[in-house]
# Entry
Amino acid sequence: MNEKKESRRDFLSKMLTTGVGAVTLMSVSSYAKGPKGTNPGTLLTDEQKDKLFFIYQEEKVARDSYITLGNIYTDEQTFASIQLSEQRHMDSAKELCIKYGVDVSEVDETKVGEFVLPLLQTLYDELMMSGEESLLDALKVGELIEIKDIKDLEEACIGMPDDVVSVYENLKEGSLNHLEAFQTAIART
# Structure
């Protein structure tokens, strides 16, 4: 049991350090192609579109994680309050995808825990296995998600148009607030 838990933690640590750059190269390009002829004013490279799609899916990982963990730990209000904010994060990221011609048609937001990108599906599954161990582990999953989101949003801003940077900076501010909320909950647990 300890070996299995340690393996999950190793995986989660690796995911945290991977960042959006390496992940997009591995898994996104076939899903993030926009419709032909789309010209929203500013053209993005395929790599930039991949980053838009990745951030959208990563925000879904956060929302879905908090929905799932909130259903397990019903007395912990941190999950419930932050999941609503994560839905707004998803909406903002999706709007950018649509604006820049990134195809999001394969994403079904109503299916909690299902992701288009295999790497994020694996991440979610591993996070939920860890979060089911205890309330403290679940809160640490929230902390880990927010740390990863902040890092990935910072990296995803590089070379992006001003409107994307502005949205990502707002998402990052929200993630900083979420991180503080999880750290406060961890301290009192």
